[in-house]
Amino acid sequence: MQPPSLLRRLGALLIDWVVASLSAAAVAGTHYPPKDIKENLVITAFFVVEMSVLTGLLGYSIGKRILGLKVENVEGRPIGIPRALVRSLLICLVIPAIVMNDDKRGIHDLAAGSRVIRA
User: Fold this and answer.
1) Secondary structure (3-state) at 113
2) Which of 4, 71, 111, 117 is deepest in the core (most CB within 10 A)?
3) What are phi and psi of 4, to 5 degrees?
4) What confidence score (pLDDT) does residue 2 get?
């Protein structure tokens, strides 16, 4: 099974960030672009929650669904919310997401016991 391209993964991440930004603006009244660090933290919190819940329960976020990607464990099932939360928090740190092994699994995927595949 060949892992999806980095461009497709980055596209999904961008879509998910836009969804989180719009959600934060609608629910919490943040601005886009954010005016200060507080608004950035609110958007990041929305991003982490949305990614964790959707990826943990369904196996994909909105961006991943649009671009035909799926996150699964080694048995091919969704990873669950606790593992998805670890994965999402590590994505926010950036470095764990860009340091990959030969199988194109980042540190965030290795820590969560997950892999990204084409759906």
Assistant:
1) coil
2) 71
3) -65, 160
4) 75
**Structure tokens of 28?**
């919490």
CA distance 37 to 60: 28
Q: Tokens in use for 41?
A: 């933290």
The amino acid at 103: D
Asked if the model's pLDDT at residue 82 lies above 90, the reply is yes
Token pair for 46: 């929305």
Global pTM value: 0.93
Helix 6-28 × helix 37-58 angle, to 10°: 120
Length of the chain, in residues: 119
B/e letters for 55-66, b = 16+ CB within 10 Å, e = fewer, are: bbeebbbbbbbe
| Strand pairing category for 115-118 and 69-72 | antiparallel
